[in-house]
């Protein structure tokens, strides 16, 4: 059986915490071929841990003959350049979120992929998380009746993020922040549940100017907060459902699950960040809250590998992509519209 070679570009916390420890689940269908990072020591250390070559040259890494798929785990500002380099080398791409920084850039990616005859898939893979898939199936099956509202909390936690050992400054740079980094999770689920967003109204603020790192080689370094770290967005979908979305690097957390679907006959809630968490279902004619446990492969936390595995299946078997570029492009358009809304303090139509 063919095993696809995967180049992981970007060797930060997301790669070493969420992706690479789960690569064994791709055995027989795909394998790690090379690890690339702009930091030579980081690339070398991670590559040695998995017994593969390392590189600090993106073009060299993605152009290798033994690479079929490039897994782009670089900071968001670098996504476009890395993805285009991979596409020009004729490689399929799985890109972390958001897929680019602007809708115009997604058009460049789409054109390059079409010209190369390859496929681009984009994170987050949240719609593939087992508990989210079950939630979508239940809602579409009428578990809560007609959906009337969605409430979601996309929380990235309050910095300095204990245990985060690489440079987190790109999450707080101008043009970044929790709305771009975390808002993609509920937006993808919202589209899958009740259709695309057509209008947004947003308010945002910056609660701190900077913070000091406490972990890793950058411990003691002051990180400026250059983007708003607290976002409140109201989104209207094409089907008429209104969603209230809160994305934050300024809040400690929530007592309940991050995503709640409210209907005329009940309420269904799910975690968007932990595949081990159950669903919670409450019918309108009862006070009982039912827990529904869903089988999952990763022990706990977000199962980001599912998106990459979905692309592997598409390349090998021709199965339809669950998170195609078109979906990521729509979510990015919603993000940009909300940023315009917060700036102009008015509702914005989503193009």
Major β-sheet strand ordering = 16-15-14-13-7-12-11-8-17
Report how far apart the termini are: 43 Å
Major sheet attributes? 9 strands, mixed
| Sheet/helix structural class | alpha/beta
Report the count of strand segments: 17
Output the number of helix runs: 10
Radius of gyration: 20 Å
Shape call: globular
Order of helices and strands: EHEHEHEHEHEHEHHEEEEEEEEEHHE
| CATH architecture descriptor name of the largest domain | 2-Layer Sandwich
Helix content: 25-40%
Could you please say which CATH topology of the largest domain applies here? Dihydrodipicolinate Reductase, domain 2
Unreliable residue stretches: none
In round numbers, the mean pLDDT is 96
Q: CATH superfamily assignment of the largest domain?
A: Dihydrodipicolinate Reductase, domain 2
| Strand-residue proportion | 15-25%
Domain module tally:
2
CATH class of the largest domain: Alpha Beta
Describe the structure.
It is built from 10 helices and 17 strands. The chain is α/β, with parallel strands linked by helices. It has 2 domains: 4-122 and 304-320, NAD(P)-binding Rossmann-like Domain (Rossmann fold, 3-Layer(aba) Sandwich); 126-301, Dihydrodipicolinate Reductase, domain 2. The strands form 3 sheets. Strands 16-15-14-13-7-12-11-8-17 form a 9-stranded mixed β-sheet. A 6-stranded parallel β-sheet has the order 3-2-1-4-5-6, with helices on both faces. It has a two-stranded antiparallel ribbon with strand order 9-10. A hairpin with a 2-residue loop joins β13 and β14. α4 (79-88) runs parallel beside α5 and α8 packs across α10 (325-344). The radius of gyration is 20 Å and the shape is globular. The mean pLDDT is 96.
